[in-house]
Specification:
- By secondary structure, this protein is an alpha/beta fold.
- It folds into 3 domains: 69 residues, Elongation Factor Tu (Ef-tu), domain 3, CATH 2.40.30; 278 residues, 3-Layer(aba) Sandwich (Rossmann fold), CATH 3.40.50.12240; 91 residues, no CATH class.
- The chain has an 8-stranded mixed sheet, with helices on both faces.
- The longest helix is centred in the C-terminal third of the chain and has 25 residues.
- The radius of gyration is 25 Å and the shape is elongated.
- The termini are far apart.
- 44% of the residues are buried.
- Keywords: ATP synthesis, Hydrogen ion transport, Ion transport, Transport.
- Produces ATP from ADP in the presence of a proton gradient across the membrane. The V-type beta chain is a regulatory subunit.
- Pfam families: ATP-synt_ab (PF00006), ATP-synt_ab_N (PF02874), ATP-synt_VA_C (PF22919).
- GO terms for molecular function: ATP binding; proton-transporting ATP synthase activity, rotational mechanism; proton-transporting ATPase activity, rotational mechanism.
Length: 457
């Protein structure tokens, strides 16, 4: 028999508190009936003796202490999933909002999935092509990897995310077995419309699943949204054998929601007011990416976060960098020069890149070529600093070549149109063209046989 509790002890922000509750479980879903306002859902987030704190998904506005009934369902939040979720749009708690009806399934799935057991993991191999030269050539995304994008307010991370969704793909026979799960947290209505319109115009909506939590939605939904998205990704990857790319934006909104709820629970804050458990909370999301032995699919993650005040040492990018396998950093200075996408390749890194490129994956010259381009662009920064002191006219001939290399690198290689989808071969060919600017003696990181093959003797 389901027991109903008809009196609340306290309402605080997105939380309600009940006393004298028996046999409640952590993460258990509760149903809250508000007279005249319908049903709401909540989740048990804290139990202390017979005192229970519940997080209300739809917010607590209109809830009084006396005129409400709360019943415990006895199970965590579960969502129905089937292959029909492809091409569908859901809100932050996995309710359809595209007018195409409910999802019906024989099974429902607990959204509180666990990180993949390290013993069951396969090492990530092969790459996912994004069609963006800076990523494919120098910060290659490997299937099963977690590769975040560190952005800032006003930078075009939404456009970059949309372009990756439109263009991303894998090579070979498995290319038809590729899907994208897109989770947005705290975005504005015009941003949501931009994503939907962009995917529909590109004709890729049939392979995309969208979970949208808007800025005016209850803040608690932002905690649920990435978990619903990752549960959908796990279903497609490990039950349907698909290769799934999960893009989550903006993780800063997620962490701010975590801080707001932690404050309402009167927990002791850590750095900049964020809860001390934020590292482990983020890890429960990021570590759900990977490849499991004996399963045909994989989950690759691109979390996107905006760094407050462009501060890469802020707790959110700092902790994200510890958990993930590299980062793609967007540069405000490149953006101000009119370069899109404004990817700053020097602080960017893909730690698994070396294991998914080269012969059999991209092309045999890719590893050496990437090393040479990195080294040359790093030298460009030194030469530019010197030119500011002595003037470009006083530079040596070799240094002038590096200055020209830097200009061409930014204007030809980094810069591309929003709808420009470059193949990996074209990206590598552009990299060889850039090296023609430098004296042959400066090309020291590439096998001479490859230099002769691609640049001639």
């Amino acid at each position: 028999m389901k027991v109903k509790y008809i009196k609340l002890e306290q309402v605080e922000g997105p939380l309600i508190v009940l006393q004298d509750v028996k046999e409640a479980a952590y993460d258990e879903i509760v149903e809250i009936e508000v007279p005249g306002r319908g049903m709401r859902m909540g989740k048990v987030v804290e139990i202390s003796g017979d005192k229970v704190i519940i997080q209300v998904f739809e917010g607590t506005s209109g809830i009084s202490l006396n005129k409400v009934s709360v019943s415990f369902t006895g199970s965590p939040m579960r969502i129905p999933l089937s292959k029909e979720i492809l091409g569908r749009i859901f809100n932050g708690i996995a309710k359809p909002i595209d007018g195409a009806g409910e999802i019906y399934s024989e099974k429902t799935y607990d959204i509180n999935g666990r990180p993949i057991n390290p013993v069951a993991r396969l090492y990530p191999r092969n790459f996912i092509r994004t069609g963006i030269s800076a990523i494919d050539g120098l910060i290659t995304l490997i299937r099963g990897q977690k590769l975040p994008i560190f952005s800032g307010d006003g930078l075009p991370h939404n456009e970059l995310a949309a372009q990756i969704v439109r263009q991303a793909g894998i090579s070979g026979e498995e290319s038809k077995n590729f899907a994208v799960v897109f989770a947005a947290m705290g975005i504005k209505h015009d941003e949501a419309d931009f994503f939907v319109k962009s995917f529909e115009e590109a004709g890729v909506m049939d392979r995309v699943v969208m979970f949208l939590n808007l800025a005016d939605d209850p803040v608690v939904e932002r905690i649920i949204t990435p978990r619903c998205a990752l549960t959908a990704a796990e279903y497609l990857a490990f039950e349907r054998g698909m290769h799934v790319l999960v893009i989550m934006t903006d993780m800063t909104s997620y962490c701010d929601a975590l801080r707001e709820i932690s404050s309402a629970r009167e927990e002791v804050p850590s750095r900049k007011g964020y809860p001390g458990y934020m590292y482990s909370d983020l890890a429960t999301l990021y570590e759900r990416a990977g490849i499991i032995k004996n399963s045909g699919g994989s989950i690759t993650q691109i979390p996107i976060l905006t760094m407050p005040n462009d501060d890469i040492t802020h707790p959110i990018p700092d902790l994200t960098g510890y958990i993930t396998e590299g980062q793609i950093v967007l540069s405000r200075s490149l953006y101000q020069l009119g370069i899109y996408p404004p990817i700053d390749v020097l602080p960017s890194l893909s730690r698994l890149m070396k294991d998914g490129i080269g012969a059999g994956y991209t092309r045999e010259d890719h590893p050496d070529l990437a090393n040479q381009i990195f080294a040359a662009y790093s030298r460009v920064q030194e030469v530019r600093a010197l030119a500011q002191v002595i003037g470009e006219e006083e530079l040596s001939e070799t240094d002038k070549c590096y200055m020209e290399f830097g200009r061409r690198f930014e204007r030809i290689f980094l810069s591309q149109k929003f709808d420009e989808n470059r193949s990996i071969e074209k990206t590598l060919d552009i990299m060889w063209e850039l090296l023609k600017v430098l004296p042959r003696s400066e090309i020291t990181r590439i096998d001479p046989a490859l230099v002769n093959k691609y640049l001639g003797k």
